[in-house]
Amino acid sequence: MTDTTTNNRTEIRPAGPDASAGFSLKSFFRSPAAGAFMGFVAVFVLFSIFGYSRNFLSVPGMTTWMNFASIIGMIAIPVGFLMIAGELDISTGAVVPASTMTVAIVSQHYEMPVMVGIAAALAIGALIGFVNGFIVTRTRVPSFIVTLATLFAVAGLTLYLSIFFINNTNSFYNAPDWAKSLFGGKVWGFNSSVFWWLGMIAGFIFFLHYSPKGSWVFALGGDQESARNAGIPVNGLKIWLFVLCSTSAAFAGVLQVITFSSATSQANFGLIFNTIISVVVGGVLLTGGFGTVMGIVFGVLTLSIVTQAIGFTNIDRNLSFLIIGVMLLIAVLMNDTFRQLATSWSTAKKK
């Protein structure tokens, strides 16, 4: 059958320089990742100077913030995808503890194979994401409100079911040696989560910047009606992004429970702020339609250094929140500037 809609569809390209055009410094410094990269370099240099005598540049110093960054990062990038698409998911703070308790209850309390516990945790994460996406696409309720409701609902349900199944809100879990090595081991002090995160970064970069569906995400954040008219399955893509976000958060929870051999049912509200701050510092516009994976990566690394490595410097730990607040404000002010640079550069290329 001949596709009669092809001529009515327009090609949607992501904001910023065209990835297919190859790398150049000029295009990079007009991309959303430029501000995040410069922020990361500034913070890294600052901490290297103040923390040189306290081993900031040592392996223990590097692993401290890299291990933290890996867990935040594998959640922040999917959250960034949603923000680029004009949506937001803050239920991740409840998905992570729900997945940790699922693994502990299924594989420790009921003594089922670890892969069954992991599969159950990922399935719960996918279900939560599907519910979020389904409600957002079927109603006019903003995703912030929907995921806020899901955050408290899942947090409350996790507490209730933890008491119901094991009569405790916390649990221990000793994974088999092979699972500990694969999901919770260490290489030169770096947790397995760091290597899982690096692999996920490669996959996320390919999806957002090199696959046809990546441009769909940018289109959603630009103009959803135009995206729908261009033949993009808006509702289906949104649901898929919510599922990806919650499943990634569930996987982060799996890595946590196996790494630290413990699980808690308490919602992690700090995780919500850390992921959103990382995404914004990484150059993603709050209004959607603009951002890069590497920008988010640099945002995650910057936040991790400030919050986790400050103990390796002479800087007062109480100033970490001040530094984060200043970084966030600067990022918000700079992001629109980089968007205008990218847009003007892209427009000039077409002339």
Summarize the structure in words.
The chain is mainly alpha-helical and 351 residues long. The protein has a single domain, classed as ABC transporter involved in vitamin B12 uptake, BtuC. The protein contains 14 helices and 4 strands. It has helices at residues 25-28, 32-51, 59-84, 92-109, 114-138, 143-166, 177-184, 192-210, 212-222, 224-229, 234-260, 269-281, 293-308, 320-350; strands spanning 170-172, 186-187, 190-191, 262-264. It has a two-stranded antiparallel ribbon. Helix 2 runs antiparallel to helix 14 and helix 4 (92-109) runs antiparallel to helix 5. The relative contact order is 0.21.
What is the domain tally? 1
Average pLDDT, all residues: 85
User: Helical residue percent?
Assistant: over 70%
CATH class: Mainly Alpha
Strand count, sense and closure of the main sheet? 2 strands, antiparallel
In the CATH hierarchy, the architecture is Orthogonal Bundle
Could you list some keywords that capture this structure?
mainly alpha, 351 residues, 4 strands, single chain, two-stranded antiparallel ribbon, globular, ABC transporter involved in vitamin B12 uptake, BtuC
